Amino acid sequence: MIRLMLILLLVTFSTMSLAVEPRNVVFGLLLVSDNAADNKLAAKDLYHLPPESPELLDLAAWVLINSELENNGEQEDTLAWLAKALGASKQVRYRELLLELQSKTSSKKLKRYIKDALKEIGDGQGEAVDLTDFDADKVKKELTELAANAQVSKKEFLQLSVGASLEDVLKELGQPNSVGQYVRTSFRPFLGNVRLQNLRISYLNAGSMEFSLDKNVWVLKNAYTQSEIDTTDVDPAELALVSQLLSSDYNLVRKSAREAIASNLSNTAALDQVAQRIWELKDIEDKGMGDAMAWLCKVLASSGNGRYHDVLNKIYEQAGNKKIAKYAKSSKRKLSRSEPSFQVQ
């Protein structure tokens, strides 16, 4: 069924054939994300590892010409990377598109990178890409559906080891349920603290993986298994959100917690996963992840479900992280105890 859905996706990329590869799903999801940082991560991948087929590049081109340049350094940097990715492809089909954008943009930085991209492409002859009928909303919907339908067991997940390439992981497990970028700060001599943007993929009911780009190869650096609670009953529309709430990227957890609160997440199977996650990390020393767990306490409180009163009280009494304990206490006060109460695994 999943393979059939992948084949159906072939017709969506502006009538072009899409290679049936989980990698296209991973970086396609990053490109259609509303987060400019996700777009930039995909652009960096396309720049360092130019694909042989044009589908992802055409999607990158669509994002480039349809993104409004805000007074925002992150957004400007993202568009510059998208232009670099098209240039690195050396495909003549993108020259007219880049020339048009170069004439319209007021960004000096973007103009400079477009100029460099045009040099990479050169003066060869060829048909220009036509994105007039490109249906990005349809592409995003189908990519999201593909990700939501991915299924991997924890046993399969545990067969992959740190050091494996992204290519090997996707070959064994297929496309993940959700993708995103995570940022780590690393000290570099003469440069100080440098923010490094890397790739995170998550398999619901199995775990999440973090990759960094090493000599143009995405290498698995960390793998985190998920709790044993089954999420079979989670609404398919909430699968991606649940996976993000259980991510090892604390920035993503905080962002997703706000979304869960705003959308009134109330599915018990999903909230059970959240409660288990807080319990497992109640003693964590990392400040960022401790703050993320505090946000997850607020997610449980916002559900209004008294099923989580007792576990929040237990976390308050036993948590080694003071911030988690503080928010567990304030969150449990917003709930009236009810049976059956959630039991930690």
UniProtKB/TrEMBL annotation:
Superkingdom in the source lineage: Bacteria
The identity of this protein, by name, is: HEAT repeat domain-containing protein
